[in-house]
Design goal:
The complex is a heterotrimer of chains A (315), B (369) and C (287).
Chain A (H helix, E strand, L loop, with lengths): L10 H42 L2 E3 L5 E5 L2 H7 E3 L6 E3 L1 H33 L3 H16 L2 H12 L4 H8 L13 H26 L2 H9 L4 H12 L1 H16 L3 H7 L6 H9 L5 H34 L1
Antiparallel strand pairs in A: 1-2, 3-4
Helix pairs in contact in A: 1-13, 2-13, 3-7, 3-10, 4-7, 5-7, 5-11, 7-10, 7-11, 8-9, 10-13, 12-13
Chain B lengths: L10 E12 L6 E12 L3 E5 L6 H9 L6 E6 L2 E2 L10 E4 L11 H11 L4 H14 L15 H13 L5 E5 L7 H18 L2 E6 L2 H7 L2 E6 L2 E6 L1 H6 L4 H6 L4 E11 L2 E6 L4 E6 L8 E6 L4 E4 L7 E10 L3 E8 L4 E7 L13 E6 L4 E3 L3
Parallel strand pairs in B: 3-8, 3-9, 6-7, 7-8, 13-20
Antiparallel strand pairs in B: 1-2, 1-4, 4-5, 9-10, 11-12, 11-14, 12-13, 14-20, 15-19, 16-17, 16-19, 17-18
Chain C lengths: L1 H14 L10 H4 L4 H22 L16 H8 L1 H32 L8 H13 L2 H19 L5 H25 L2 H9 L4 H30 L2 H6 L7 H8 L6 H26 L3
Helix pairs in contact in C: 1-8, 4-13, 5-8, 5-10, 6-8, 8-10, 9-10, 10-13
The chains are: A mainly alpha (315), B alpha+beta (369), C mainly alpha (287).
Amino acid sequence: MPVAASSSLSRAALVAAEADRREIRGRWLLASPALLIILFAAIGPLFIVLLFSFLTPADYGGIVWKPSGHAWFQVLFQKDIFDDTTTFADAHLSILWRSVKLSLLTTIMALAFGFPTAYFIATRPEKMRDIWLFLITIPFWTNLLIRTFAVQEVIRNEGIINTVLIKLGLISSPIQIMFTDVAIMLGMLYVYLPLMVLPLYASMEKLDFRLVEAGYDLYANRFQVLRRVIVPLVKPGIIAGSILVFIPSLGAYVTPRVLGGGKNMMLGNLIELQFGQGRNWPLGAALSITLMAIVMVALMVYVRYAAGSSENRHG
Amino acid sequence: MSRAGSGERRSAIEVLGVSKVFGNGDDAVRALDNVDVTIRENEFFTLLGPSGCGKTTLLRLIAGFDFPTEGEIRLYGEDIAPLPPFKRPVNTVFQNYALFPHMTVAQNIGFGLEMLGKPRPEIAQRVTEMLKLVRMEELRNRRTSQISGGQQQRVALARALAPRPKVLLLDEPLSALDFKLRKDMQIELKRLQHETGITFIFVTHDQEEALTMSDRIAVMSKGRILQIGSPRDIYDRPAERFVANFIGDTNFLEGTVTAVNGSKARIALAAGGEVEAGISEGVKPQGNVTIVVRPEHAAIVMAPGQDALRGTLENIVYFGTDTHFHVKLASGPHFIIRQQNRHGAREELKVGMPVGVEIGEHAAQVLKD
Amino acid sequence: MANASAGKVRAVFGQADAQKQSRTNFSIKRQTGFGVIALFCFFLLYLPIATLVVYSFNAGPSIAIWEGFSWRWYVAAWNNNQIVEASTRSFIIASFAAIVSTIAATMAALATTRTRPYRGLNFIYGFINQPLMVPEIVTGIALLIFFAMVKIWTGYTGLAYLIIAHTAFCIPFAYLPIRARLENMDLTLERAAADLYATPWMAFRRVTLPLLWPGIIAGLMLAFVVSLDDVVITELVKSGGQDTLPTYMLGQLRRVVTPEINAISSVFLLISIVIVTLFFFLNRKRT
């Protein structure tokens, strides 16, 4: 039904329309401090990073205002100093590969530990659930650096693990865990595990256990119920948890720096290096944009899967 | 405080040609379509209809939570439609009560007066008065979360009445209460309306509630008011099929007009026989018409007379206070008769028997469509 | 990490409305081995933290060999000027960032909830949550570059840069609980206030704000903890001599580590736990 021409609108309708316009203006005004702060100290500077990735590095850090695509070339390739041949930048590629590999491994491990933990919490009596959840939350809200440092104390050569193993006589000299990829992965698993548990728990708490009952009623055994009923129903939680672990792992800086030492860098450390000793700001900028692009892809996959699985639930 | 009902009562609220359109373009929904209604001073007026009929929208327009797309809403002659809610001397009792959870009972009741800038002693006195009116004196300093549903309902009423509004709007206020409490509150509401002399506009989808409490009822459907009248008018003389159907059980019969005499018409029924039927205002019966007969206004007989409808008794349903007889008429349609149970009566009727249906005098009414 | 904490908040608020599910037979819920894995998980989560706290009381200078109980490292930390200065700086930055971000977030939450969708609403959502989507290292680099330019233009090198940077990434954290609280709030309460002659401002002051208060406090505490915990952005943005406690510790980790670090960490832990516990109970009362 079309709205009648404005001449026949009531006085009230005109007043209301004006009030509406004023309200929306007011809402923008209310939001503006937050928007301005974020524009100034979060979003705006990202565009400068993009710009810098197309400029020429100055000799001692910083940039020269001369356009160049060289930084982007350097992300993947390098030129031999002597014979000018182009080869893949092995150092960069191995760091990129380590970042993706360790992030994926961390995600899988977090899922392997997090799923049973979330399920365990979700099946506790209602009053106890909050307390278990609280226990998951506490380490998470404590400083990331402190937690990483705590992991270091456990896995060091003189740490608890090695001490106990030696005392038990299982090994004669300490196992070197620190400054390896394993150390980085263990650290990230430790610091990001709650991120897997919490969204998983949120889905599992909504799980209708009558469906599980129906599964058993229809002759499924425990494993079949888990695989065919529970896992599909909590899939949104699995996806959310995986994304929440994968993304910060990919951009991790503190954990690889403390546990990986200087050699086992991840993308975050490589980026930081370009602004420190590397003195190649445009390359650092280009690497930052690369990292962000990977994150965006992961987020897009998440949005697509999350949308898809919620459609399935309604359909 | 009660007011003598002498003389012509003034109109408190006049709704003039009001339409409300939500959304625009192809998605536009016309929630109210050119509604006209006048609500008199000191009246208990009910807006009755199924959900989505526009009754709550109309109430919200009067309260000021929404603005009409077209038309005017007058309060004692002044167009209040453009005013925001806090400038209207009209108060609302909300469906979920909307009591402020961070205030005590007394603070809730005094809120309106406080906002009006009344001096503290006056507020305190008025709050006491109101607590007495709704019989809640002892709960004065309780938090609203610490009192029962029925008590919350009373606080909501007291809060809305405290500023002495010219009109009190009630949005299905009893729907959250259980059956027993609802019955009590119906009586309570009537008492409050009588004692305060304030015009009540009451929204409900419960036809029984509407019939028992109202001075007048407006039956609404699809954004229109179909019929306005006293409960008796609406029940006995429904003007439209929707009204007849929505309020109580009804039998519909087809027939042809043979004669019209003032407010009566003679109808030759398709099922055989002839009845005299009442005509509602604005209806001009001619040709084929539908008439309605309430189930309790017909009688089942074993030896039918000349004007009786003939049929077969198909089912007998026992309801305790009364019994329903389902008769399949010889001409095809079904007819339901409700008869009050008297001790030892009607034992002789058996399913499958041929029976007659006699329609009582003044029982039939011609419908508009 | 910003991204990480965001998910946590989302998860906690996501489960708030899911408390109403029927109790079924216990054995139906059981999955073999899950309980053992879960308890192992909890053990692993607390083992490193416990070790850290225990060694903060070590009488000896090592974080590996236990030599008896002592408060000496707490005393040492207390008398270490660098630590005191860094802690003070951390608290100043966190206080400013938390207060400013909570005010901005409260306003933004009021602007984006309880409304029909209007043009730009999704844009505002996206903008506010943006700091959660970008890896901290990238934001840190971006600010490093941008503030380096600003420092040259203005000549100012004070704490304001850190405060602004922290405020920006704290906004989404403060925003989440406030928005959740607003969305759970019954709209008819404000309508009832307006019906009872309260002007929009009075309705806000007397009804909305008192009911929103727990959400605002929760937002403030979240923002405070997040700011206090930040390492990456601070490390990149800070000028010389602007160490916060976490960046000071990061520097120390490269050297020989003494239980002094454990002592600071333990105090830090305690503060976080207290704040999170308060936050937890504040949110729990909300129904």
